[in-house]
Design goal:
A two-stranded parallel ribbon has the order 1-2. By secondary structure, the protein is mainly α. Helix 2 (about 35-40) runs parallel beside helix 5 (about 160-170), helix 3 packs antiparallel against helix 4 (about 85-135) and helix 4 (about 85-135) packs across helix 5 (about 160-170). It is rod-shaped. It contains five helices and two strands, in the order αβαααβα.
């Protein structure tokens, strides 16, 4: 019966020993995904291509908007010297043309967003493989993003290794920009 009094103590000591053994076997690695994204040459180049195309498209859309505003203003100024039928016809044509161009720019933006998602996926897929391989090589049990960690010892940091490896493996990321159709622009 005296033995039963020590059973809870024995159980507690066993649990603490088990937890210590498990945590001694757990090796944690930390990566800074923000730094990786900034330092991945292929990703930075692909992102710049998309951003440049987006800026070009926005500039073109602004120029087209300005032209349409002038055309609409000119039409409005000529309203009193045209027949109502002719005015309504020209206004309808202008509205249809504007809708076509709006759709063109909307579709282009959607395609650029899709392409941006594609380059993110390409980088993410590559990072997943690289982090897995480096973790296995370094016997790391868990790899966490630095943004989710309150504190980590510098010895757990593997970001620079990941950047080096991603730049070796991922020389470039293909960017498939939407093709412009001359027939779409008026």
């Amino acid at each position: 019966m005296k033995f039963l009094r020590f059973l809870p103590v024995f159980f507690l000591v066993s649990c603490i020993t088990f937890i210590n053994n498990v945590s001694a076997q757990t090796k944690i690695g930390v990566i800074d995904t923000n730094k990786i994204v900034e330092k991945c040459t292929a990703y930075v180049q692909a992102k710049k291509v998309i951003e440049d195309e987006f800026s070009k498209s926005e500039k073109e859309a602004g120029e087209m908007q300005e032209k349409f505003s002038k055309r609409a203003e000119d039409l409005e100024n000529k309203k009193n010297i045209m027949s109502a039928k002719e005015y309504n016809k020209k206004r309808e044509e202008l509205n249809k043309e504007a809708q076509i161009l709006q759709k063109k720019f909307y579709d282009k933006r959607i395609n650029l967003d899709k392409e941006f998602n594609n380059i993110n996926k390409t980088l993410n897929d590559s990072l997943t493989d690289i982090v897995k391989n480096l973790s296995e090589k370094n016997h790391i049990t868990v790899t966490l993003d630095k943004g989710m960690v309150f504190y980590s010892d510098e010895s757990t940091e593997i970001t620079d290794e990941v950047i080096s490896e991603v730049n070796k493996r991922l020389k470039s990321i293909d960017v498939n920009l939407p093709q412009s159709k001359d027939s779409d622009s008026k």
